Amino acid sequence: MKKILNKEVLSYVIMFMSFFSICIFTNIFTRDLINVNSYGFYRVRFHILWILFSFSWITLFLGILYLIPKKYKYNVFIIMNLIIDVVFFSQICYVQSLGKFMIFSDLFVAGEGLQYVHSIFSNMSIGMILTIIFTFICMIIVKILNRKEETLEEEKKPKLVPILIFVSLTLMFRVSAYISLGSNKGVSTWEENYNAKSIYFNYTNPNASMFISGFYEYNVRAVYKYFYNLLTLDKTALKNKIDEYNNIYGTELKDNDYTGIFKGKNVIYVMMESVDSWVVDEETMPTLYKLKETGLNFTNRYSPFFNGGQTINSEFACNTGLYAISDKETIYDKTNMDYPYSIANMLKKNGYKAASFHANTKTFYSRGEFHKRLGYNIHYSALDMQKGGLLDENTNYFSDYNFISDDYLFNLMTDKEPFFSFFTTYSGHLEYSVNNKVYKSIKNKKLDRKKYSEEEYVYRTLVNDTDNAIKKLLESLEKKKLLDKTVLVFVSDHYVYGYSDSNYVAMKKNKINDRKELQNTPFIIWSKEIKHKDIDTILDTADILPTLLNMLDIKYDPKNYIGDDVFSTSHDNFVWFSDGTFIKSSSTDQSDESILTKVNYNINKNRDMLLTNYYGK
Question: Interhelix angle for 44-67 vs 7-33, to 10°?
């Protein structure tokens, strides 16, 4: 018994527990993240799958450690554990912030997220922290148990029997996992989201893939699939699939009651950073609230997140009617893409001058070059203009009010009619503490400090600054006699995901605390003569572009976009998300199977259009 239960065997047991603890928490966390019932993942077979894949990797790790000399073995174990903890920490923080597990291409946008790392640390999962602490305890115990072994000069060669056991166990678990995936023969398009083998084979749904595979298999296979897809890309085949999609779902452009109501008008498109529906009230955002009550208020608009940062994802969707994809480059760094049917290009073809505006440097998200590819004549960056001496160097232009109040910037925004100006606001950006630089620069804080917690007060003060900017914009347009000739579009990039208490946000929005439901965000179109209407038709960000083109009476081909005109008879009564799930209108008579089929087609068409530069030169 002493020979069996020696320090070395006990060390392997502890190492196994350390490796497996990561898998257990990730699986539990994934079950909470995904609507398990809708996918049928509550069945025992799905529990067995991630366990088998996890065991196959853990026995492989232990086998490798067995082959390493004792004086290095336990230090190598500690290094392995630390690397795994870093990946684990990154994955859980990422999914908490963005609602999906990280894939390899997401590493390309990691740099932009580092500046907000404080908000990640302030909203960590307790389970994640406890799991990491447990792995550290395991490392310490293993180190203590074997501190004498590491000093031994003589080293015995690894025995053949243990090696064969580790190899046999690894193969047994892995083969059993593959068998347990079952079959995907005869699986229809809509069933691909629920079929284990289809999920594993496609690996396009990060959350479901993690649940099927477990932590270790997911991270390794995600890297493998990235490079595999990169090397095996068949553009001709993908273009044929797009044509097939268009043959099935393609529609003809038809006029409707809103066709041409803004024909010839100037357009100012304001994409509002983190302006959530629950703060658009008479106290915090009185101007936007008034525009909502007097213009077209789209109450059922969603801002689904696909890839890249949430802001740039919505920015891309607003401009192209498509969503960002995972590829070898982020969507804003893809230089091999043409966007002939972007909103900027479509308006330029009809005589508009197109310019985009933002406070941050033009290198952030590569906006300077990216927006040129999107069709804008020029992108104006306040930070770069300050450095060039064109703007006051002492003004904080990250404040939306300061940005719009600058006469030079406003004149650039409204120069040479007809104009199309796309302004991405900044004030509402996380983090929501008194150290926020925009918050500190706001001198006249009007809101009642006693009514709110510190975090809510800071957040409301920031979006109040955005509202003051909107008020100033209206006043300046009126003064320049442009208000009658201009249509204003207000759309939030995403809900306030940077707020620490998502339960509180859900309660304020009167939604369940589900990341998809929480993406119900403001979308308002306003012009001076428009009659107020609350429009409860369900739509997503990609639908906005064709909707605006129709209202401006600019003809387009519906197949050029993933979204469609919200007023058209062919408009879908559902919104869809990158993981293949959807939210449907209560009035739709479409079956879930037909919706899922179209959702999968949407995902594939969107991806294939961008991978092949389908409409490029």
Answer: 140
